[in-house]
Design brief:
Length: 65
């Protein structure tokens, strides 16, 4: 993977995202819930599994100010 640098004028000339915002605005809450429940890449957390989550440990490094 390479890092590419762009000038401000190049960024402004890039295509905007391809999201169909009109379609997104028309989605009902039930449509969003159905999509979330059927998404295999991001399964919802059950209340049973939620109880098993733990807070992470403190970082081992000191922050310098």
């Amino acid at each position: 993977m390479t890092i590419e640098k762009y000038t401000l004028s190049q960024v402004k000339s890039l295509k905007s995202d391809r999201t169909n915002w009109e379609r997104v605005e028309r989605l009902s809450d039930s449509d969003i819930t159905l999509a979330a429940n059927t998404d295999k890449d991001a399964p919802l957390v059950s209340s049973h599994n939620e109880k098993r989550f733990r807070r992470g440990s403190k970082p081992r490094h000191k922050l310098f100010r």
